[in-house]
Amino acid sequence: MELREYLRVLHKSWLLVLVSTLLGIGIAAGSSLLATPQYESRTKLFVSVQAGETASSGDLVQGSTFARQIVGSFVDVVTSGVVLDPVVQELGLDMTGADLAEHISASSPANSVLLNISATSPSPEQAAQIADAVRESFTRVVNQELAPDRPSGTSPIRLTMTQPALVPDVPVSPNTKLNLVLGVLVGLSVGVGLAILRSVLDTRIHSLHDIEQITDKPLLGGIVDDPSAAKNPLVADTDPHSPRAESFRALRTNLQFLNVGGHQLTYVITSPGPGEGKTTTAVNLALSLAQTGASVALVEADLRLPKASEYLGIEVGAGLTDVLIGNAEIDDVMHRWGRNQLHVVPAGRTPPNPSELLGSTAMDQVLDVLNRRFDYVLIDSPPTLMVTDAAVIGKKTAGLLMVVASGSTKKHALEGAARTLDTAGADLLGVIVTMLAAKGPDSYGYGNYGYGGYGDTPDYQPEADGVYAGRRAKGRMAKGRARG
Question: Rounded to two decimals, what is the model's pTM?
């Protein structure tokens, strides 16, 4: 993953990262508040070797060396039972010497003769008492049991207190500031890790980068998602200044540049699977092209589950299937829709052999007639992975436009659809992404402008007569709008 991809993942999963970070802070704060404060008191001893009155300089050096060597052994003696058991009895502590050892620590800096003794306790006064008691008990053990006696009966090792145990004012634990910092770091790390893991395990298509990893075909456009799209599928006609309508106009512009100099402007619109917006895209693209003054034929070639006629409010009667079996002529079933040069060929009755009909010579003749009479011919076909209809008819046209839904279409589905078309010899011209967020890391750039000033107003003329008045009303899809 590149840096920009990591940034996109973090941008997309910022809420997860934020919640994880806040959870880490909360756990750290809670543990700090619930933990019993511990106070630490420290005392220090200076370890030396007593020299006799006749000691030479060499004896002094040897004594200093011996003190540095022996002080390392004293570190382990401090926490032994022979030192701590008397402390427990002296202070009347409700624990054993082994239990007290967990609250005692001893250390000695390298190449020094200093011995540090620390004691921790929930009570600051008790911490100081224990530290002093341990120092005194240790001194007795060294002088009476560990140090070799001189002939005079005195120990050659001298332990001198250099710092008494003081009553601490501030607890050493919990360290709330440190815990909060660790909580932030741990929570942030977990959140980022989960975000990346979520992205890696997510097999759905979200962005242009996902498409580029699967196919080298260009991204022709991104259709902005709209929660009301199901109730208002003809947004290019009913709400031309919306971001969603603008995205169809951008798609129209890219389509016009797709086949510059070409003579055949017949395109099949398909998708890997159902519910990805291919029919809505086909209808609104046809409307957008017709708004430029171009003559457009929209052919409903999804003979198994036709939806375009329903969206356009066309009475389902005779249609493409009747033409293909020789029961009607193309002009008999074609409907002119709206004020522009948009003509619709509905699917007609559902046949038992859709693929055979679409691959027949009769279909070649229908396409030949439409190519000669219209500037653009858009064919709404079934999903590529469901049936072979799209691949069959795609070989008869300039190529196919693949519609995928952001956050819904799986990467392997797009890969499989592209491979199916390639095997069939059909030309995939480009990809259209639907259901894109208007803003955010997966957007296609349509949510960043005010559409009151950027709408494609020259292509749209308000109703000047009463023929289509009330188009914006709730009954805009009345069947009287379709004329045959």
Answer: 0.64
